[in-house]
Amino acid sequence: MGAIRLLLRPVVVAAAEVPTQATGWLTPDEMARLQAITEPVRRSEFLAGHWLVRVLAGQWLGCDPQSLALVAASFGQPRLQAARADVPLHVSLSHSGGWLAVALAPVPVGVDLELSRRPRDWQALARAFFAEEESRALDDAAPAARAAVFHRVWTLKEAYAKRDGRGLTRTRLRTVVARPAPADQADAWCWPLGEGALALAAAPGMVCQVDGAPPECGLPSGWRYQRLQAPAARDA
User: Fold this and answer.
1) Which of 62, 102, 204, 223 is the most exposed place for a label (fewest CB within 10 A)?
2) Which residue intervals define the domain 4'-phosphopantetheinyl transferase in the entry (predicted)?
3) Which domain holds residue 63?
4) Can you tell me the distance from the alpha carbon of 42 to that of 65, in angstroms, rounded to the nearest whole number?
């Protein structure tokens, strides 16, 4: 069915590769968003991520990265364009803890990266946002493993929302669950990163080529999204 390119880079490394000549490669919308960001770290993440997408797509398409445009679509999910025409590639970005993740595929794709930075009440958060079975799984986990379990569930939900392009509402958080699946049936994959996680959502049968994973990145597990039965809700 096709391949997915998944690229991970430290922000400082990716930022060093951004063209130094002003920011003429940004679209007017991207420039407006950049100007609204006042925190230097966030500005660096924005520029590095948007340039890295162009570099990866340029390699795939065999074109100059600066000839590509990145246009925000629903819920901020970006869309690639060349000469104002959509490129037949789907893209997703995420950043956390000084790292960037960029996914590119010929089918809708979503990526989410969460690196644990501070202890939180993972069980309380799960009760507030997760499906009942997911909250129970967190309760059953050893205390030392709860951060990792929480981030696995959360990143899988975020990746689903990015692939779907409709965002996450409280109803969708509670009614879309990811359950373990064999490789040929999985439509999501999750890599452990210490107490954090990296999740990718695409389509069954996809092959993922990962470049730049940090040393602590473990092997991926396969998952399949399922919708739970629930009463109709306005924001579902």
Assistant:
1) 62
2) 108-170
3) 3-227
4) 22
